[in-house]
C-alpha cells in the first residue's frame, strides 16, 4: 500500500522510459474509496527538488459529491488515470497512454 503523501513530487516515467512529469495533485473517488487520477506537470528532470517542505505544503483535494471527482482543468497538466500506474517506488511508472488537458480556445465571431 502506498500513502498518498508519498505520491506528491514523484517523477513519472512510462514503462518505455520516457519522462512524463512530476505528480502535483491526487484526485480521490470517495464513493469507491480509491485514487482516481493523478495530475502531473512536465518539468525538467534535472531540477528535482528535495525536501519534506514540498510534501507538507501540498494538500489533498477531496470533493464528496459525484461518482467521479473531476479535477479543475489546468493548462499543461497531464491527467493520469490511476489504473495506468504500473509501479510506485522512487519513481512512478505508468503505461504509455496518457491524456493531456488543454484549455479550449474561445471562438469569437
Fold blueprint:
Elements: E1 11-14, E2 19-29, E3 34-41, H1 52-57, E4 77-81, E5 85-88, E6 92-94, E7 99-100
Parallel strand pairs: 1-6
Antiparallel strand pairs: 1-2, 2-3, 3-4, 4-7, 5-6
CATH architecture: Roll
* Order of strands in the sheet with most strands: 5-6-1-2-3-4-7
Ends apart, CA distance between termini:
53 Å
Number of helices: 1
Helix content: under 10%
Round the mean pLDDT to the nearest integer and report it.
73
CATH topology: SH3 type barrels
Could you give a short account of the major beta sheet? Answer: 7 strands, mixed
The CATH homologous superfamily is called PRC-barrel domain
Following the backbone from N to C, one meets helices and strands in this order, namely EEEHEEEE
**Total beta strands:** 7
Strand content: 25-35%
* CATH classification, class level: Mainly Beta
Which spans of ≥5 residues are poorly predicted at pLDDT below 50? Answer: 64-74
